[in-house]
Amino acid sequence: MALRQIRTYGDEILAKKCRVIENVTPRIKELAQDMLDTMYEANGVGLAAPQVGVLKRLVVIDVTSDEEEANPIIMINPEILESDGEQTGDEGCLSVPGKVGTVTRPMHVVAKAFDLDMREYRIEAEGLLARAICHEIDHLEGRVYVEIAEGGIRDMEAPDGE
Ligand code: NI
Predict the structure, then answer these.
(1) C-alpha 143 – ligand 1 centre gap (Å)
(2) CA–centroid distance, residue 73 to ligand 1 (Å)
(3) b vs e for 68-103, b when ≥16 Cβ sit within 10 Å of the residue's Cβ?
(4) What is the pLDDT of residue 162?
(5) CB of 126 within 8 A of CB of 119?
(6) CA of 50 to the centre of ligand 1 (A)
(7) Taking the model in full, what pTM does it have?
(8) How far apart are CA 48 and CA 136, in angstroms?
(9) Annotated active-site residue in 41, 68, 136, 147
(10) Which of 60, 63, 146, 161 is the most buried (most CB within 10 A)?
(11) CA–CA separation, 112 vs 44, rounded Å?
């Protein structure tokens, strides 16, 4: 397991547009695994390559809870094909630790991406997964949710008992 350092908001790399991945090299596979390890270690539900300092179009997502079996999703060159509906709710980001903000996203998206074998696949997502896909693809365009949070960002409430 190799953890990578997560860049925090204000780091200029988070404002840059990422490049398309043409080939899945061993380095890309290692990056994807490191990103998953880093995301799980940080208790996040998604992580995009620029957040670990790599300007490539790769994101990892897992919206399952601790009690559920892990369901890692690796998306290379992801694109939203369709979106509809609307959800307004709190969103956070591992690059903006301890903060949340209210963001409106589509309730439902259909996206396409490539897997680590460079096979194209489609994914249909609702709710939190749809939100995560939109959030992570924004990172690939150099956008961080704080810029679209309604009313700005605020401190995350401490979990019960802390
Ligand atoms: Ni984020």
Answers:
(1) 9
(2) 15
(3) eeeeebbbbbbeeeebeeebeeebbbbbbeebbbbb
(4) 46
(5) no
(6) 10
(7) 0.95
(8) 6
(9) 136
(10) 60
(11) 22
- Dist CA 28 CA 4 (whole Å): 14
- Sheet containing 73-84: which strands, arranged edge to edge? 46-48, 58-61, 73-84, 108-114, 120-126
Q: What's residue 155's pLDDT?
A: 95
3-state secondary structure at position 99: strand
Q: Span 137-150, mean pLDDT?
A: 97
Confidence of residue 1 (pLDDT cuts 50, 70, 90): confident
**Quick one: pLDDT at residue 159?**
63
Q: How far is the CA of 9 from the centre of ligand 1 (A)?
A: 9
When pLDDT is averaged across residues 32-50 and rounded to a whole number, the result is 97
Q: For residue 136, indicate whether it is catalytic.
A: yes
Residue type, 12: E
